[in-house]
Amino acid sequence: MQFVRRGGVCVVGALFLCLQVYGGKLYEDGVIACVAESVITAHDVALEAPYGGNAVQRAVALVERELIWAEFQRLGIDVPMEPVQSRLDRLVSERAGGDRAKFEEMLDKEGLRIDEFEGRIEKLVVVEIMMREHVSRHADTSPEDVLEFYRAHPDRFVRQPRFRMQRIMLAKDKKGRSLEQVRQLEKTIRTELDKGASFGELAKKYSDGANRENGGITDWLKPADFAMLEKMLAKLSPGEVASEPLDRPGAIYFIKLADREDGGARSLDGALKKEIKRLLDARDEVGRRQEYLHEVAKRHFVKIHEPAVRTAFERDAAAVLQEFDAALDRARESAKAGTSPR
To answer: What is the residue-averaged pLDDT of the chain?
Structure first.
């Protein structure tokens, strides 16, 4: 795919700038890309490091930002200063407690001047406006699309089994307490439970765990999160306390099953319909965004010198959607395994 528009002051001016400033030694001198009248260097990519992504992703984001900025200028639209100032004020507040001078010092350490940073904010706001106007607002997923996707992908909408428990933890290595005292506390708790005492109140009184203040109750957990408890919990009904505490090297645990949800297919209720619509809207937006970028690129000079960046930028919508789907699959498999997606 070729993104260089032949002819025109924009193309000639940008090409002249690249050659004049860098003497024809483009990538060797650190030039990653030329977009309209802007030159993107390796230094520019490095300055984007605090905002996440690898070097190629940051470089592609810069190419896209400069491309949309060039299109914005071609249309002759004024930059709306209110959202720019609002975002800048928020960043000054978050990063420097509202102290403008301190914020400028922080930028200086990162190799940025305040006017350069303000320019970055302007371009980010412009990109958001342009993408919202030409991409996001055109989401048109219908109820029929939602139903069709649900029927075609039953494996995507399976609820994993999960449980909540209450626990009383007695640490064996707590400072100022002997193991004999821990064993005595264990007996005391057993006796109190046999008499019908509230498990939650006992947790508040005796537990050394982080959940003691709320009666020892945990968040929802998957069996994989606590494999050592799986057999014990399988024997319990909600509200039932395990007959024997779990004795581990570092602590003794009294366990009560608070609640359990079995796994299985999710019904297509209102919440799931909204979830699928958001997913399909996002998927559609990813494809339309790439199509829009390619359409805009035909109207402006774009020359990318780094092969990996050029390949990433020139992906067609189908390739981007394929990556989107692959990321969803990885997230789903990670959720099943109880791990974080890479």
So the answer is: 84
